[in-house]
Fold these 2 entries.
Entry 1:
Amino acid sequence: MAKAPVLTPQAEDFPRWYQDVLNKAELADNGPVRGTMVIRPYGYGLWERMQAEMDLRIKACGAENAYFPLFIPESYLKREADHVEGFSPELAVVTHGGGKELEEPIVVRPTSETVIGEYMGKWIQSYRDLPLLLNAWGNVVRWELRPRLFLRTTEFLWQEGHTAHATREDAAAYAARILEDAYRAFMVDILAMPVLVGIKPSYDRFAGAINTLACEGMMRDGKALQMGTSHELGQNFAKAFDIQYLDADSKQQLCWTTSWGSSTRMVGGLIMCHGDDRGLRVPPRLAHIQVVVLVIRDEDGAGGVAEGIHDELVRAGVRSRLDDRVDTAFGRRSTDWELKGVPIRLEIGPRDVADGQAVLVRRDTGEKTPVPLTEIATTVPRLLEQIQADLLAEATTMRDERTTDVDSVEGVLEAASTGFARVPWPVVAGEQAAARLGTKAVTVRCIQREDGSVPDDEDEDGLYAICARSY
RNA sequence: CGGGGAGUGGCGCAGCCCGGUAGCGCACCUGCUUUGGGAGCAGGGGGUCGCAGGUUCGAAUCCUGUCUCCCCGACCA
């Protein structure tokens, strides 16, 4: 009799599989207030690694970290018409403080364009102060009607970047640079997710933006997930918050600003892009535990050998964890690490000690190979890189196989039931076409050039729309 | 807000129709035996059955009210 599967199989019920993974891999729990999320240590470890890698790339693009307040005066939101209209439905508003009703309600930030705009206005005097490149790590609150852990929660963690530039060209170039050098590079190189990039249709722009760029990843059920966005805000916020500078000719000029964000949603994307029926599969470059050295039974010195291997790996720069909890059955422990998606397991028991080897198990393929103890410190780092590359290749193949070129709305609907549809943009550009897509929950995810690059605007000739169902 | 469902140990559920003061699986604790893929056996701890009224000798079960949560649709990183 086969044992019941640890997780609901993906093919049977994908959302349930996702829930099962969150629970069994100890990633997150629902918080006490609807829509809130408790991120457990293993899940937070994934986020911390994402933060570290993203932070490097953001700083490499020249931005500096700063912090802005959680509380925003309601009046700030109202200064930019589109912005307040877009965010009003999802605001949490504080009306009481210190036991008294407040004179002016305070909004819990849904995003920080307004406060940061206010301070940019104060800090920027001359063209010598530009560009001003800021980034903030924090939490934001957007009241969600249908929350899902990591993918859409009322409170979530993210980074939001805000920049001010002297010219429109400079702002546009920076928004594009962040999308490419920070977001896309991170998602492809670290998360092993082959995201598509493009611009959003004008009706789907960020509230207050003149252009929105985005990265879209494909999940294993064929749905799309937006994983990072970068906005050109034009001079909308500069006008609303008086962000001006004196140019070299001593003339007052309005700044051009941008904003860009990536959130804990990426954790959900990671799970749904690489996870299989045995659990999570964490790409090695991201994994905060890359290798677990598992003592099968502590007999004939197996425990000591395992500890030695673990130490050797740590010295070789591998993020290794020793599992010597021999009071728990071996099968249980290996299943648990598999659920958590640790890329490599090294299993060491008495038989291995006798043979001078360890059994190396790849999480991505399940393949088991005996490796001489003397070769582990050189084999493992190489294999970690191989697994990283293989996961990216697998995800890329999946995406390509499930992306269909079509040339009609009917074709889009057909293709989007199982994956992405790539269609000439004019076919779905109209309001009417969008409405027809909407009946099957299909949306235009992004608009790109034929070669997959990011267009300047949606009016260029020869553009394609990527359409899909989405999270 | 429209449509559907559910509230019973930490989690998942049964019991309700035919009232008699609570049960199962998983998890947890102790002991022994185990440990090369989710251990076995024995013992044990833990629930005023969402809340408030009512009916009754007696309510998880029947009646009324109320609250909450989940699923499907419209907004969103």
Entry 2:
Amino acid sequence: MRVSLKDVALHAGVSIKTVSNVVNDQPHVTPTMRARVQKSIDELGYRPNLTARHLRKGRTGIVALALPELGNPYFAELAAEVVDAAAEHDYTVLLDHTGGRRDQETLVSQGFRARVIDGLILSPIELEAEDLRQRAEPVPLVLLGEREYDLPYDHISIDNVAAAREAVRHLISLGRRDIAFLGARRGRSQPAHLRLRGWREALDAAGLVADHRLVAATDGWGHADGAAAMARLLDAGHRPDAVFAYNDLIAIGAMRVLSERGLRIPEDVAVVGFDDVVEGRFGAVTLTSVSPDKASIARMAVESVLSQLNGAPRHQARRIHAGYSLVERESTLGRG
Amino acid sequence: MRVSLKDVALHAGVSIKTVSNVVNDQPHVTPTMRARVQKSIDELGYRPNLTARHLRKGRTGIVALALPELGNPYFAELAAEVVDAAAEHDYTVLLDHTGGRRDQETLVSQGFRARVIDGLILSPIELEAEDLRQRAEPVPLVLLGEREYDLPYDHISIDNVAAAREAVRHLISLGRRDIAFLGARRGRSQPAHLRLRGWREALDAAGLVADHRLVAATDGWGHADGAAAMARLLDAGHRPDAVFAYNDLIAIGAMRVLSERGLRIPEDVAVVGFDDVVEGRFGAVTLTSVSPDKASIARMAVESVLSQLNGAPRHQARRIHAGYSLVERESTLGRG
DNA sequence: CGTCAGCATTACAACGATGCAAAGCGATGT
DNA sequence: ACATCGCTTTGCATCGTTGTAATGCTGACG
């Protein structure tokens, strides 16, 4: 069995409370006493029982992070950043993944999966505002990602519209005119709408037509979905001279298909992705991509949870934009 | 504040324990009583406080998973599998990452990072046997990965030597003779030694020389490390006709350098990786790779932790081999 | 009608830690 | 020598839940 305060107290010949005071660095403990108790603590190898502490104090030191899928390197990289950011505050991260399914996301938001947590950082895909409106859970919640809700929860993301606009403007500056968008989620009410809006706005601003036939829906957000969408576009007889993808995986899947069809990147088709995952930096053609500042997203998410825990007013939600940059690589090199 | 058993008991006009019995589906509760209490539970929206339950029962329902780096898709994919496997047993996963550093790995193994866990699944990189020998922690531990220790802990991995042998044998069967190995960790006592041994054994068995000049060390396990190692090899005047990499990321990094130097894959240089990460299936040249059965690794790891929790003898450790297969793709296509 | 078996319900203690308030103790002032 | 002050140390209750043991109650049986 584990060593408890009681054992240490017995060993040191003092009261339980005194040991507790030493452990918690309370004032009003004489150096002598502190030393004596510390000795017993060390000898017995005492370590506080966080469960008990939590029961008493109402804190666990754990924040949950619920992501659509860990297999997507963007989320994996983000998770790593969150773990680090949490560690800075002596917090650990409990990981959950929802598969981007609405029922799972709802369950997680209501605390059904993990109930021993101080806060929740959730990156929703299909969750609807109404699902959250019914949330009775007192646990602080922070939302990440592209979905926007008019609800009293902090929301952290980059300015997706502006970032998408910048990406497409970059393609236009290279002289591209027929710019496809890959990755509007098929059959969804909110299909990647912010990035799609940025695409449209950039085209409008340049006096180009936003041809909806160049918008290809996908079922998911992986390589295979990008490949399928690209193939569909080409099979339908379209030959865009540039592609802006919802994310890097879709872009990479698309690039694969483009080269299978004998199209050169960037000469024939320039490609821009979104997320700046490591993978995009090492393909045969490196990928130009919008690079969200993952570290600061993670940091702000953790800080939001902690500030809510420390009594920040929960009714006024903040919409926080993290930084981003467009990283240009081979897939948009030179003039097309 | 949250609703507790006490509140429900008051509301229903019964004792706390009776409510507890209803909640836990204990026998010896009359249907009438059960209905009455259930009504109060529903009306008040009671949900058990897991922290208190855990304090009482000594279990938290959380297993920790400590990985070297989440940024590596192999580990991210594995983490996703572990989360799923744990969920099947109503367990959630607490994620930690060690950066593959020995001090972090030691801390994690001793429970310093996360102290609210029922078990720990650890994938060590630099941890030494002595670090674990001093482990006093009563929490069940399972080890994953290539490192082998003669210690009383279950260890789950694939048969790295056999898998590496098979990969290299495949290259030999394509007529390749000068087969490089990329990824022995530089300056380490146990540099990827199992996969390296498989490489050597396959060459020996085929009557080929295992030329140690074709073994290139790396600093880490990422794309950049593979690229650097490949560049170093080529710069030194070596021109292998095949490359076997410690993992897919290193392989992909190497492929990038190979094509930069105008070498064709697989015509000039065939490449085999290890891990079968999704990324390898969507490059310009898809990557042949050893594919460990991640799902069953995850499942067995979780089951090992749970069986230890349920009193399985801890002194006799098991060495468990999961399945794997060699998936052939474009990077080793046809005859060279 | 009284007794007892047997099930339903309850009271109490405990898991380990901490907040609060009271008790202990040495030093100081008169 | 004694009252007082102030810091150190302690005892007790408590967080929400569950295991154990005791109690209450109903109905069957003699």
